[in-house]
Hints:
It is a single chain. The strands form 2 sheets. A two-stranded parallel sheet has the order 1-2. It has a two-stranded antiparallel sheet with strand order 3-4. The chain is mainly alpha-helical. It is 55% helix and 8% strand. It has helices spanning 2-5, 12-25, 31-41, 57-71, 87-99, 111-117, 139-181, 190-195, 197-213; strands spanning 75-79, 103-107, 120-123, 133-136. The protein is built from 9 helices and 4 strands, in the order ααααβαβαββααα.
Amino acid sequence: AGLAMAGGDPAADDRYTAALDAATRLDAWDAERRVDVALAALGACTDRERPLSALSVGQRYRVRLACLLGARHDVLLLDEPTNHLDSGGLDFLTRRLREHDGGLAVVSHDRALLRDVADRFLDLDPTRDGRPRLYAGGYAAWEEARRRERERWEQDHEQQQSEHRRLQDAVSRARDRLSTGWRPEKGTGKHRRQSRAPGVVQALNRQQEALDAHRLDVPEPPPALRWPRLGVRPGAP
């Protein structure tokens, strides 16, 4: 501000005000303490004089995570944040994420963390239309919703397969009637059998058109993982 008054950059006051507002909003004055709290809670090295290269992989991970949690970013993007954490570190991470005021996206295989923290799930597993699914309502609601979606997918696919088989059978029966049912035999009934020919041909054409119009637009569901049933070995307790 003094430089601006002395003939320096006239926009310096505005930049200083914007920087001060940002620092106040982020509570930058308390950042060092927050990082120290996170380092201790995560069981990370608190000696700021030690270089990261001198720490183990797990220690480096915990130091970086502590810096992220202490920085109060508007958006946190975390990939497997529970790696290298003990139970105390897990409790601190869970509490800190639940208290986070901004946006938060977590990629994790830790079901306990997902149950405690996540309220929406972006499911990238295969779907019938090839698009990801966004589910709300927490972990239990996500599991139930994707179970129902999978069941509907399997049922719709089976119904389309059954209908296609039915139409194929109908065409086969109509073709059989065309080749054998109206062909006149020697003797009586010759003209009566010939008079049925156009109707049989029309029936075949209708069945063939129905089969051609039927499309299998529900793809086959991906195979589900099923564990084999293992018998008990003789003599096993």
